[in-house]
From TrEMBL:
It comes from Nonomuraea montanisoli. Coiled coil: none annotated. Residues 199-346 form the Peptidase S9 prolyl oligopeptidase catalytic domain. Transmembrane segments: none annotated. GO terms for molecular function: serine-type peptidase activity. This is Prolyl oligopeptidase family serine peptidase.
Length: 370
């Protein structure tokens, strides 16, 4: 019996070790979905018909979103307008313009909230611009800049696995105000230094935004607006928390990650991952990066902010829950102007209502730069 007891004890110990190892491996895998960069495009939408000014699409999960979008495929791009009909798994939309390439049945594409894919201000908008390098902590960071007469610059900070082209929709409005736009990259972007090869969710990336502010000041800027999207909308608040007193006149946050717990939990729910395992993933994220999710929770730190904030959220956002942003706005009504849209999805507030977005942007930029 004693021998049997020892054997059972060993079996239980081994099973516990295997269980812990399995949980640890699952937590490591799930953490990787959050902090390991993944560049490249996928094309989940198929063009099943194209006649005149009407295209019929199948696939994807957002092809019926209201508003104006690009349709981007390998070698081509078109501008899409209103939804005309839906049914049988297909969505028919107006085609406003085929900008490049050949739109035809069989093409695989994606609905493009950026409008013009991975282009630049010259090819997308016909605006003069320059490619520049921003000296950063880890090395030179590729960027582009448009010109303007104002000494207040806009620094555009893109989202996770994205690039500066995400800001192209807003360059014409800033250009009309005479404001130069600096579209930056940060660590782990394609062409940028990698550091340890992991996203730190804003805990270190803010230093690259600080480098961009220093670059702008060296080029004659006396003030800046920081325009952040998604993860960039979390990096930007961290920047002003870490560099008080710098010439930041305002923040523009579009579908921002103001508390990483929310999108991590949502991602777990969408994948059928139990919340307890998501908690393990968060623990591993913190251990792999040295970041603190509590420190990255800007709602928790809302009282630290001193500059005006223009905040865009869309209720159909399936990537970043709007709850933290709404709580941030409620905590700082003295600073935050909230614009809430419906149907555009993640960073889709402009697409669902460009006129409303641009009016809010113009009013905010004019007010804070007086």
């Amino acid at each position: 019996m004693k021998r049997l007891g020892r054997v059972l004890a060993w079996v239980v110990a081994v099973l516990l070790m295997l269980s812990v190892a399995g949980v640890g491996a699952a937590g490591w895998y799930y953490s990787g979905l959050v902090i390991e960069p993944s560049h490249g495009s996928s094309y989940p939408v198929e063009v099943v018909a194209y006649t005149g000014d009407l295209v019929t699409l199948r696939g994807g999960d957002d092809t019926a979103a209201p508003g104006t979008y690009g349709l981007t495929w390998d070698g081509g791009n078109a501008t899409l307008g209103a939804v005309v009909s839906t049914g049988g798994g297909n969505v028919a939309r107006r085609v406003e313009k085929v900008r490049r390439g050949t739109l035809r049945p069989g093409v695989h594409a994606y609905l493009d909230r950026w409008m013009w894919g991975h282009e630049d201000p010259g090819t997308a908008l016909g605006l003069p611009y320059r490619k520049v390098s921003v000296p950063g902590e880890l090395g030179d960071l590729p960027a582009w800049r448009t010109e303007g007469s104002s000494t207040t610059w806009v620094i555009a900070v893109h989202g996770r696995n994205a690039n500066a082209s995400e800001a192209l929709r807003f360059v014409p409005l800033f250009h009309s105000l005479g404001m130069p736009v600096l579209g930056i990259s940060y660590r782990n972007d394609e062409g940028a230094p990698a550091g340890d090869g992991l996203f730190h969710l804003g805990a270190t990336e803010w230093r690259d935004v600080t480098a961009a502010v220093s670059y702008a000041r060296g080029q004659g800027a006396t003030g800046v607006l920081l325009h952040g999207f998604s993860m960039g909308g979390g990096i930007v608040p961290m920047t002003v928390r870490r560099m008080p007193g710098e010439p930041v006149k305002g923040l523009i946050l579009d579908s921002p990650v103001l508390d990483w717990n929310a999108p991590i939990d949502l991602g777990a729910d969408q994948r059928g991952v139990p919340r307890w395992l998501a908690s393990v993933g968060k623990f591993v994220v913190e251990r792999r990066t040295g970041a603190s999710l509590d420190d990255l929770d800007h709602v928790r730190h809302a009282r630290e902010f001193r500059v005006p904030v223009l905040l865009f959220v869309d209720d159909a956002d399936a990537s970043v829950p709007v709850g933290p942003a709404l709580r941030f706005a409620a905590a700082r009504p003295d600073l935050v102007t909230l614009v809430r849209t419906r149907g555009g999805g993640h960073v889709g507030s402009w697409n669902t209502d460009p006129g409303r977005y641009e009016r809010a942007l113009r009013d905010f930029a004019t007010r804070v730069t007086r």
